[in-house]
């Protein structure tokens, strides 16, 4: 189950039951949307070389992939600081994308996230593990968990791409500018009375300073 693969009948029929099952989970789904103009939010063009010399980054990185990895590690550390408790063990399961394209990149991401969390988190933590679903062969449980933020992120991306942001009374107005799958996911995302909380953080260039951060609010198009 993933946003980009929701084009066949079987997955479409399973979407609503899947989202209803996800609603019973206790946790938080946070989508972080970063404006494309902020190409270097967490790094600079020479960051990979700097980290390789100072912190033993071992994998081969291009600027785009290293920025994405550092950006994800920063947000991970911020959320960890907000929601963790002393001594808590943490297991981070990530999609198999560019930031963990091979074992060396996975290890670099693991080490950078550990270092950054040491800056953001004000208490001692337990064990920290980072892996992809491939770590457990034949078990699709992690794939199912990863599908939840994937669906939410895909919907938010479509909302922003169509320039139609905006919810009214906790539901997205019907519109032919959004695909049917995004309409369904949007209705689920707006429902925040269950134990699974959903929110979206928007990072974009501000009038003053480098960028601004806020909660994405949805309103009907006039």
Give structural notes.
- The protein has 222 residues and is an alpha/beta fold.
- The chain has one domain (3-215).
- Helices cover 42% and strands 13% of the residues.
- The strands form 2 sheets. Strands 1-4-5 form a 3-stranded mixed beta sheet, covered by helices on one side.
- Helix 1 packs parallel to helix 6, helix 3 packs across helix 4 (103-120) and helix 5 crosses helix 6 (180-190).
- The chain is globular and about 50 Å long.
- The model is unreliable at 164-174 (pLDDT under 50).
How far from one another are the termini?
A: 34 Å
The chain-level mean pLDDT equals 81
Order of strands across the main sheet: 1-4-5
SSE order, one letter for each helix or strand? HEHHEHEHHEE
**What profile does the largest beta sheet have?**
3 strands, mixed
Write down the domain tally: 1
Low-confidence stretches: 164-174
SS strand fraction: 5-15%
Q: Which structural class do the helices and strands define?
A: alpha/beta
The number of helical elements comes to: 6
Helix content: 40-55%
What Rg, in angstroms, do the CA atoms define? 18 Å
């Amino acid at each position: 189950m993933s946003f980009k693969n929701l084009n066949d009948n079987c997955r479409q029929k399973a979407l609503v039951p899947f989202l209803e099952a996800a609603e019973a989970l206790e946790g938080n789904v946070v989508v972080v949307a970063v404006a494309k103009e902020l190409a270097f939010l967490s790094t600079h063009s020479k960051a990979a070389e700097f980290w390789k010399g100072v912190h033993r980054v071992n994998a081969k990185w291009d600027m785009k992939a290293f920025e994405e990895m550092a950006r994800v590690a920063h947000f991970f550390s911020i959320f960890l600081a907000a929601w963790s408790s002393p001594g808590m063990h943490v297991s981070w399961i990530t999609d198999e994308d560019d930031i963990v394209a091979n074992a060396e990149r996975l290890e670099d991401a693991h080490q950078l996230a550990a270092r950054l969390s040491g800056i953001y988190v004000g208490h001692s933590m337990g064990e920290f593990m980072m892996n992809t679903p491939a770590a457990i062969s034949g078990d699709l449980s992690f794939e199912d968990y990863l599908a939840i933020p994937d669906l939410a992120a895909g919907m938010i991306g479509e909302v922003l791409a169509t320039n139609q942001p905006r919810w009214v009374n906790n539901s997205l107005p019907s519109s032919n500018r959004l695909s049917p799958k995004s309409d369904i996911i949007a209705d689920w995302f707006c429902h925040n009375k269950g134990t699974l909380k959903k929110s979206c953080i928007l990072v974009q260039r501000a009038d003053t300073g480098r960028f601004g951060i806020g909660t994405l609010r949805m309103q009907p198009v006039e």
